[in-house]
Amino acid sequence: MDIKLAIFYILAAFTVWAAGVVVLGKNIVRAAVALIFSFCGVAGLYVLLEAEFLAAVQVLIYVGGITILLLFAIMLTSRIGAGTTRVINDQVVLSALVGAGLLFGLGYAVLRGIPALTGPPHLPETSPFLGRALLTTYALPFEVVSVLLLAGMVGAIVLARKE
Amino acid sequence: MVPLSHYLILSAILFSLGVFGALTRRNAVAILMSIELMLNAVNVSFVAFARYLPQTQLQGQVFAIFVIAIAAAEMAVALAIVLGLYRNFKTVNVDEINLMKW
Question: Domains in chain A, ordered, with CATH?
């Protein structure tokens, strides 16, 4: 019982630390690598929440796909060795206020507005359930998302191509 | 068992960090990374609700799958736009890109 809580705290601290490096790190490549760690921490949280399929998808798509895409974009656009330039813009105080206010508001809403739910002791097996749900209840959104992905792919090729 | 509020507080912390990063970073790619953090934070609370709601039909996990798919499409288009920006302006610092036409 308590081991789950301990694992949660370790994963949460790891994820938040990595996210902090992403947001505050001076070196953009280090920020991208920290993003990988943050995604892995979130995947661990999914396992803790009995969402094994989503954990696998998280590792495949975020860690394996999106981060590699980001690293390619960094290598194509930034001078990596030049770490002396400013990474933070002039709105830092205002942004910190906005972030802290948002955190306070969300935390207040969570602590006051949401009842302590417990849920069923064990979820049914999720992967077959999700597959069936995506092809029956959510068939229309599924097809719309496929069209969106196709449009995004074509759009990315058109935008990135040299005229 | 971990209480639901722990997950939601963690999600709030990650989301606020993402907002802060998206508002302060100068590099456009770093802004995109902050946006990914925010999407991940939302996914954490979706999946937590999918686990903790009574008689759950796993709607939260289905939503999280759609969020991931849309994040992938968004990232591809956004990085193409960043490459186009770099080609035209020779920089990806968003506070130096202040012209819509030149």
Answer: 3-89 (1.20.120.1200), 124-163 (no CATH)
pLDDT digits (tens, 9 = 90+) for A97-121: 999 999 999 999 988 888 777 777 7
- CATH for the B4-90 domain, from 2.40.160.20, 1.10.287.3510, 1.10.10.10, 1.10.260.40: 1.10.287.3510
Question: In angstroms, what CA-CA distances link A131 with A54, B15, B58?
Answer: 12, 29, 11
The Cα B28–Cα B47 span in angstroms is 29
Closest Cβ–Cβ partner in A51, A90, A110 for B50: A51
> pTM of the entire structure?
0.91
Cβ-Cβ contacts under 8 Å, B45 against chain A: none
Is A126:A51 a contact under the CB 8 Å cutoff?
yes
Instruction: Provide the percentage of residues in chain A whose pLDDT is more than 90.
Output: 56
Q: Write out residues 9-38 of B within 8 Å (CB-CB) of A.
A: 9-10, 12-21, 23-27, 29-30, 32-34, 36-37
Of the partner residues B20, B73, B79, the one whose CB lies closest to the CB of residue A149? B73
